[in-house]
Amino acid sequence: MKVLVVGANGQIGKHLVSFIQETDDLQAKAMIRKEEQASYFTELGAETAVVNLEGEIDDIAEAAKDVDAVVFTAGSGPKTGKDKTIMVDLDGAVKTIEATKKAGVKRFVMVSSFDTTRQAIQEAPESFAPYVAAKHYADEWLKATDLDYTIVHPGGLTNDEGTGKVTVSMSGEMGKVPREDVARAILVTLENDSTIGKEFQVIGGETPVEEAVKSF
User: Fold this and answer.
1) pLDDT tens across 55-84, in order?
2) Does pTM surpass 0.85?
3) How many domains does the chain have?
4) What is the band of 172 on the pLDDT scale with cuts at 50, 70, 90?
5) Does residue 205 fall inside a structural domain?
6) Catalytic positions, written as ranges
7) Per-residue b/e over 132-170, b at no fewer than 16 CB within 10 Å?
8) Where is the NAD(P)-binding domain (predicted)?
């Protein structure tokens, strides 16, 4: 199975491409914004596609035309303004969903925010609310499609070394989780069709990632 990783140059994306390339059954195609970002991925043996997420749906669809699954792990980042939040986390996500459909790909994994409910938008700090709102509507757009989707809701992301153990639920309290372990959870999601049509939160825990995701 070939997987297009959108936002591959992000920290979760890099871990995910690396993990995919270590498997026997999966192959990564890294969607990046700049040609100079390609060397990291080509050294892993992964294909690359240089596409600006703020560009056209057709450009993303072209990158997705030869893959079996798409993972959206792009994000505007904490230092950008509301404009980039809208253009990347909402518009970029929706365009990727539409491009996936246009390319005839069925499997889609969305990396979202920990809590994207309407209540979470209302309770979020003013500076964070636009991000939660963007993720909320991107998630809702995906769930309204006929794609074989899974939505992964990571907790507070850290750059700590992954432990290989997490807690997976859909009603847990907010906690932290290494980006490396989120990438492992995405990998397990891709490898298991039992995750199709589901969404789950993932934070640090005591259960091996594969067991936690497969048993949810």
Assistant:
1) 999 999 999 999 999 999 998 765 666 788
2) yes
3) 1
4) confident
5) no
6) 131
7) bbbbbbbbeebeeeebebbbbbbbebeeeebbeebbbee
8) 7-192
